[in-house]
Amino acid sequence: MSYEHELIQNHRKWLQQDLKGTASHCALLSLIACRLQRGEMKLKALLKLGSEQGYTPSAVRNILRRLMQAGLIEYEHKDPSIFVRLNTDGQQFLAGV
């Protein structure tokens, strides 16, 4: 197994544990994951959603960074917006959690 593959698997394991957790960052992770399961979303809308729930834009970006490190989401730039969506691995991962 390559180092990169092992690193991705570790990130996924940590996310899986956090999705079952009760801490504030776990709730934000669950909120974002649940919303992305319904389809792609503008980055701006995700930041607003987090803000409406009392989270900082930094906290939302941190969760998105963790999902990206786990290889579960992808970004797409469609002028003038940036969209975030689950990739195939992300859909399978969240369906199994």
Offer a quick outline of the entry.
The chain contains five helices and three strands, in the order ααβααββα. It has 97 residues and is of the alpha+beta class. Helix 2 crosses helix 4 (57-69) and helix 3 (43-52) packs across helix 4 (57-69).
Overview of the structural elements:
- This protein is an alpha+beta fold and 97 residues long.
- Helices cover 64% and strands 14% of the residues.
- It has helices at 3-19, 24-37, 43-52, 57-69, 88-95, and strands spanning 41-42, 73-78, 81-86.
- Strands 1-3-2 form a three-stranded antiparallel sheet.
- Strand 2 (73-78) and strand 3 form a beta hairpin.
- The longest helix is centred in the first third of the chain and has 17 residues, at 3-19.
- The relative contact order is 0.17.
